[in-house]
Design a protein that fits this description.
single chain; mainly alpha; 2 domains; globular
């Protein structure tokens, strides 16, 4: 961090048309209207320093454990620590002690009941949750060119979108179930493993990817980019559910932010970067977007790789089914992201593109009024678990397992 102190980061794209259009008439404006945010650059310096800040605790564990033994042995050892916990006087490397004493310490602001309200929203919204994650949060994230650089540096495109999607889904589903984030439970395990995968990727990029431009792109997988990613899972995700006609209770909204605040804490994101509500999240996100240019060639490749995932994915047996699924995702992408972003990402223009999302919105309205909340949570959980199971079957060799 000290080396980077000399770099005075500026909100370099604040006058660019992509930034202004987003915040003055696009989804950014909708986020401001929906959250009551007061956006300005007063806190820019306070946040921008985190562009050059990384999770050093995670990095030290990777150096001590993953870089000194086989990946399989290292993963088994970490799993033991996750399941059994680490005590102050255990005979383990200091780095392991530091990381686990942090993640095992329950912050005094944590409210498990509130987290479960957030989990209920994620389950209750059933396939709308998965549409939102994929066609708004994930593909919308590709429009921020610098945010994608670690994906390009680690050659994520070669791994293919099916694998990338199943890893994201595996993580998301496992952290958004009842009580999943209690110490030693499944969601807690996923958070720790994801944190170490980020550190592993960051150290590998720094070692092997000589073209990394720190001044422009920040440190690889830096704390500020991590904040933006997790605002994607909370604020942007919730905005998408609303666009698809879901109503969200205040308690669920608070719960969703609380859930992702705690996941962020477990992932080693500094606490002052973790928003408590939609107003804060929108204000934090505004500052971050001012250092991101819009789509570049890599963005377009990533977006198309995700769109074509439906064609490559063997879950659906017949070609016509896969083509139809791709068409539905394209319709949702246009509906959720808007024209300007879709044109930049070169999303194909298809006929009747608002038909499916508008119908979905109408059906959600009826369904939400006819079916009890409890029944929707149960059905949503079951349907999401089924989608995850299908994905894991076809991508058996996920990093997480």
């Amino acid at each position: 961090m000290s080396r980077m102190k000399e770099i005075q980061l500026q909100p370099r794209f604040k006058n660019a048309s992509h930034f202004r259009n987003f915040w003055e008439k696009g989804n950014g404006k909708q986020l401001i209207d929906f959250s009551g945010a007061q956006v300005n650059f007063n806190d820019f310096e306070k946040f921008s320093q985190f562009y050059y800040h990384t999770d050093s605790a995670g990095d030290e564990v990777v150096k001590d454990i993953y870089f000194t033994r086989s990946f399989k042995k290292a993963s088994e050892e970490i799993e033991q620590y996750i399941r059994k916990g680490v005590l102050v006087d255990d005979d383990v490397p200091e780095s392991v002690k530091a990381l686990f004493l942090q993640t095992q310490k329950i912050p005094d602001w944590l409210d498990y009941q509130l987290i479960n309200k957030g989990a209920e929203l994620c389950m209750r919204s059933n396939l709308d949750s998965l549409i939102s994650l994929r066609d708004y949060c994930l593909i919308g994230g590709y429009d921020y060119a610098y945010l994608n650089k670690p994906l390009i540096a680690t050659e994520a495109l070669k791994k293919g979108a099916v694998k990338r999607l199943s890893e994201t889904l595996d993580f998301w589903v496992n952290v958004t179930r009842y009580n999943a984030l209690e110490i030693h439970k499944k969601g807690y395990e996923f958070a720790i493993k994801t944190r170490l995968i980020h550190s592993y990727a960051r150290l590998s990029i720094k070692k092997h990817y000589k073209a990394w431009d720190t001044e422009k792109w920040g440190e690889p997988i830096n704390s500020w980019d991590m904040m933006a990613t997790y605002i994607g899972f909370s604020l942007v995700f919730m905005h998408s559910l609303k666009k698809l006609g879901n109503t969200i209770a205040l308690e669920e909204e608070k719960g969703l932010f609380h859930l992702w605040k705690y996941v962020g804490y477990l992932l080693g994101i500094p606490e002052q970067l973790l928003p408590d509500d939609k107003k804060q999240a929108t204000e934090y996100f505004y500052l971050w977007t001012s250092v991101q240019p819009s789509s570049d060639e890599d963005s377009v490749l990533l977006a198309h790789s995700l769109l074509n995932e439906s064609l490559e994915n063997p879950i659906l047996k017949y070609n016509f089914q896969r083509k139809n699924l791709r068409y539905l995702h394209i319709c949702c992408t246009w509906f959720l992201l808007g024209e300007e972003v879709c044109e930049r990402l070169k999303i194909p223009d298809v006929p009747f593109k608002s038909g499916f999302p508008v119908t979905k919105k109408f059906l959600n309205f009826i369904y939400n009024n006819l079916v009890s909340r409890k029944a929707r949570i149960e059905k949503g959980n079951k349907d999401q678990m089924k989608v995850l199971e299908d994905y894991l079957k076809i991508s058996q060799h996920s990093n997480f397992h």
